[in-house]
Amino acid sequence: MTFPRPHRDDVLAAVAGLLGGLLLYALGLHSQGPDHAVLPTRVTLVPLVVTAFLELLRRTMPRTALLVGTVAVIADQLTRGSIATVLMFADLVYAAVVYGTPASARRIPVTTGMITIAVTIGFLAWFREPAALLIGVVTGLVSFFPAATGAIVRNHREAAIAARLRAEQTALLAEMDRTQAITAERARMARELHDMVANHLSAIAIHSTAAISLDDAATTKQALTVIRENSVEGLAEMRRLIGLLRDSSGDTEPAAAPTLAGLDALVAQARTNGVASGLTFTLDDARGDDCRLPAPVELAAYRIVQESLTNAIKHADCGDVRVEMSGRADGELLVTVTSPFGRRPGPRAPGSGAGLVGMRERVALLDGSFEAGPAAGPPGGPEKIWCVRAALPVVNDKEPSA
Fold it and tell me: With contact defined as beta carbons under 8 Å apart, do 385 and 341 qualify?
């Protein structure tokens, strides 16, 4: 049978206990007088050596060490006895509670307590003298007291481990929250940068291509005019965004955000940018003049229209681009942008698909619905159209009329 490798502290305890017991034996110091010994004095060394060996197993095999140690300490009481054997047995009781199974840690204090009570009552009834109580006290000191101490130490250790696990879990959750916050902020910055700059760059790309490919002075001049306007506006938007990112003053005053009141200007700008694309633009705003919307809803609707117009300028076939805004009875703002579906001749700007992702994310943040894709065209119009439709929940904060 192979035994687990003992802990260094257990080896020291075993050596110290054995040497101490041998020293006491050599000096003739025993725990009992010769009249109480049943076995010869030299037999005292057997429980001493056995208990010292069991000290090597106090961590790795605590239950076995306790059971064999109990037999050894009982045998020690049949000899003249050794205090070292009794002290090592008390350590085995303590180790069985601290390093044993949870069931053993619960049962051993109860068992040793009952044994202490039984020994006290038994010897008191046998000797019928108050001095018999001392035997019960000694029994409690070498059995119940180590077990109770071990239970207290184990409870403190388990509480410390649980506290450390909770602290690690809290730190992990905090790190996850920080990572999610950084990811969400990066996604928001990407949406804002795309919405503010991409439409200007798309117009610049289309009109610069037209100016290069068409040998017409008037067209070239008009294209360069549009390029300059969009480059100036794009630079201004970029500077504003960089200023917001670099601002460390802690000022929490919100920056001015575009609203649906600027739809006319947005569509007018799209008309200018879409001249080279053969597109016309129509705005049908059926919300009413007294319709008041929360700022997040207005910003999301504005950005959806802005990105849809930019995509139409980049990809739509020649024809009419229509923007419709309406309120529904279920308390939603319906934004619809349609454009001719197909490949048109002339300059085109490449797309990355980030615009549709950004629109979908904006709608999802408001718990709305979004869909974009080809659809059948209206009667008398193109055969197929590209339709972007978003339904944004609206909380009407208008004061109720009396």
Answer: yes
Report pLDDT digits (tens) over 86-141: 999 999 999 999 999 999 999 999 999 999 999 889 888 888 888 778 888 888 99
Per-residue 3-state assignment (H helix, E strand, C coil) for 228-275? HHHHHHHHHHHHHHHHHHHCCCCCCCCCCCCCHHHHHHHHHHHHHHCH
* DSSP calls for 88-99: HHHHHHHHHHHH
Indicate the SS3 state at residue 376. strand
Number of Cβ within 10 Å of residue 211's Cβ equals 20
**CA–CA separation, 305 and 321 (whole Å):** 11
DSSP H helix total and E strand total for the chain? 11, 5
Kindly tell me if the per-residue pLDDT of 301 is higher than 80.
yes
The dihedral sign for the CA sequence 146, 149, 154, 157: negative
Provide the 8-state DSSP code for 337: E
Residue 125: CA count within 13 A, CB half-sphere: 6
Q: Tokens 């694309």 sit at which residue?
A: 277
Number of Cβ within a 10 Å radius of residue 238: 14
**Planar angle of CA 48, 54, 55, nearest 5 degrees:** 95
- Mean pLDDT within 345-374: 78
Alpha-carbon distance of 336 to 325, in angstroms, equals: 7
Residues 402, 289: Cα–Cα separation, whole Å: 20
Give the SS3 label for residue 324: strand
Whole-angstrom Cα distance, residue 72 to residue 21? Answer: 14
- The DSSP bridge pattern shows strands 332-340 and 319-327 to be antiparallel
Residues 6+ apart with CB under 8 A from 32: 77, 79, 80, 81
